[in-house]
Every structure is written in C-alpha cells, then in structure tokens.
Amino acid sequence: MSKSLLKQIMEVFEPVTFYIRHNGKSFEVKAIPYDEPDGQNIPLRFQIIIGLTPRGEIERKSEKWESADIMDKSLLNAIANNICKYYK
C-alpha cells in the first residue's frame, strides 16, 4: 500500500493504537479501520501497521478474524483481541 493512500485512510478513520508482546518483544500496532462499524460496533476490516511497517489487512468474518497478509495466528489473535477491547 502506498504511503499516500495510507495517509488518506488515516484522515477518514481514526487509527486504534496499542502495544502487544509477541515472541518476547513489544510492538506498537496501529489498526486503521476501513469500514463503518457493524452491529457489534466493530469495523469489519483494518489496515495493520506494526512499528512503522505496513503489514497488511485483517478482516472479521462472523466471529473469526482472518488475514492473507499476517500468517502468524498468535499475532493475528493478539491484534484482533486488542481491537475488540478498544471498541467495547
């Protein structure tokens, strides 16, 4: 994703920022929502930035989070859990 497109998305939707520990390291994560919130008040798709590096998109389908970009399931779950906490 280009930096200009990322900047446009961030201007429209407020990013969720949090820290996670993964594999013994702490990371700052920004999750930028793509969609309006659904019935659970949580957007369905997010662009994920870890540190300063765009890592791709995650998407909630029903109660399950998926990503074609983030293959590490424990990392994906940690990100998804923090997003859910933020919106509750």
Structural features, described:
By secondary structure, this protein is an alpha+beta fold. Helix content is 28%, strand content 39%. It has a 5-stranded antiparallel sheet, with helices on one face. The mean pLDDT is 86.
Keywords:
5 strands, alpha+beta, five-stranded antiparallel beta sheet, 88 residues, 28% helix, single chain, 2 helices
Task: Summarize the helices and strands and which ones pair or pack.
Blueprint: H1 3-12, E1 16-22, E2 25-33, E3 45-50, E4 53-61, E5 64-66, H2 73-87
Antiparallel strand pairs: 1-2, 2-3, 3-4, 4-5
**Number of β-strand runs:** 5
Number of helices: 2
**Which structural class do you get from the secondary structure elements?**
alpha+beta
Largest sheet, spatial ordering of strands: 1-2-3-4-5
Overall outline: globular
Major sheet attributes: 5 strands, antiparallel
> Roughly what percent helix?
25-40%
- The SSE order reads HEEEEEH
Uncertain segments: none
How much of the residues is beta strand, in percent? 35-45%
How far apart, in Å, are the first and last alpha carbons?
29 Å
Output mean pLDDT.
86
